[in-house]
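P.,

For your records, the input lines for the assembly:
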Amino acid sequence: MNWSVFLPYLAVTAGVTYLIRMLPLTVFRKEIKSRFVRSFLTYIPYAVLGAMTFPDVFISTGDLRTAVCGTAVAVALAWRGRSLLTVAVAAVCAVALAQAVLLLV
Amino acid sequence: MSALFRQGIRHGIPIALGYLSVSFTFGMKAVGDGLTVFQAVLISMTNLTSAGQFAALPLMLAGGSLTEMALTQLTINLRYALMSLSLGRKLDGSMKTLQRMIFSFANTDEIFAVASSQPGKVGKAYLYGLMITPWIGWSAGTLLGAAAGTLLPEFVRTALGIAIYGMFLAIILPPCRTQKPVRAVTAVAIALSLCFRYVPGLNSVSSGFAIIICAVAAAAVGAIIYPAEEESA
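Structure tokens returned:
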């Protein structure tokens, strides 16, 4: 990508991400009083990641059938509280296996 | 090197390993989308965030406005503000403003989780150690994926596409299992996300704004129906 296009995007993504992390640790050190805001901030990670995961996970491998296999394995392991690494690697292996099976049949 | 610094480095190793697979995918995808290897690595070195970086790629390609980019990053990464607020109460006296400014750069989901789970207060030696290995893992994985991703066989590359979602599921499902409010919020967000993808009209909203709307609406509904009993992260 052309640097004159790329650099403004880089500055915005890095700058916004850093300020979000840095300001609460340095400037806003007070506890949040509002119960609504506190609850909202508690729930936002799950809402963001849920919306980012579905339905995109189903098109992440280019084939709905292999994606469903990978998702099923990931959901089963994640539900049991397995680590990020375990879940991610197992999902990739499940997709690879499903691709191999599809090639054979 | 102090013992605490070494302990931090040791605690960062499993995080770095987890990051390798996901950042490898990011590097591969970024280069596949038309960025140079150096650009892909630069994004990882300066952002150090999975979801935000993956969301930034399609926006860059589509020529989205800088405002849309900023709002997307703000929403997707807003969770870090909560983590920083929460972590602030765990820091000892060695963490003055400058040290806080340095460490906050690396306050990712996983580094936050490990730092928070330490007994008592944590200081700069431990935290600097804890942030360095994952940062190297995240940057090195991106470099490997960007430079060598195309060398991998096609079926491996397509299979890697699901890695980031496996990581997301590993973050959201355990609390969904044990906490009804989290379960409800996540369900609402997913339902809205499906609408924005498949309902005619709604599916013309750009992906960045769709995620913002879904997440803000679902979290607001959750905050109204299930106001938090006590401060938690």
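Two observations worth noting. DSSP finds four helices and no strands in chain A. The radius of gyration of chain A is 20 Å.

Regards
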